[in-house]
């Protein structure tokens, strides 16, 4: 009898009880794109659509134990890393993953929430740059995060190009600079690939507050497409298309009284079954 395997995506990220961002958004995204999702909890933020109220830490030993439990059993085809809010957590994730063979890694450097709430401190940013950037195949900062990483204001497309040059020198393999915070009718994102070539992606900006978790969703979508065997460029391109459609299909729905979630299941795919060799 033939045996099959689902493409598997592991998310290492924070919690969002309101269901729009964090691990919940990651699981929804990978599932909607036909992948099997596993997860490791890094933090317990208390939040809703209106913002983050408090963050309860998860012990780093518990994070290491979770990663090992998953990788020893359901080895992923791609990993998405989201909220890492202490230097110790960064070191724990990097050193634990290093015990296993290399997997495609998408890192979403979550530093600022949609509400504008700053989520991590300076020493954590240093640890991220020194330890996480070298193992990530692509990082996905938004304009606020690009501004922090490049240490410069980022408001325009020209600023994105300049920030990309600075961030690439920090040791990234490739960078998707997200333009969602642009105050224009058209949003331009830039993908700075591993060959130091820029690729520009343009989409229409919707008049909606329902973008909570869009960054988590995008990084997870890229991971899901990598798990399916897509190239980095194709995964980045397809991931952005998925997020665009998820926002479009959820733009007129009210969930909560702040920044609402995307519609992750506008066109859910069946779990993909790949024949085992």
UniProtKB/TrEMBL annotation:
Keywords: ATP-binding, Kinase, Nucleotide-binding, Transferase. Residues 16-262 form the Pyridoxamine kinase/Phosphomethylpyrimidine kinase domain. Pathway: Cofactor biosynthesis; thiamine diphosphate biosynthesis. Transmembrane segments: none annotated. It comes from the Bacteria. One of its GO terms (cellular component) is cytosol. Its EC number is 2.7.1.49. GO terms for molecular function: ATP binding; hydroxymethylpyrimidine kinase activity; phosphomethylpyrimidine kinase activity. One of its GO terms (biological process) is thiamine biosynthetic process. Gene3D superfamilies: 3.40.1190.20. It is an enzyme of class 2 (transferase). InterPro entries: HMP/HMP-P_kinase_dom, PM/HMP-P_kinase-1, Ribokinase-like. This is hydroxymethylpyrimidine kinase. It comes from Chryseobacterium indologenes (Flavobacterium indologenes).
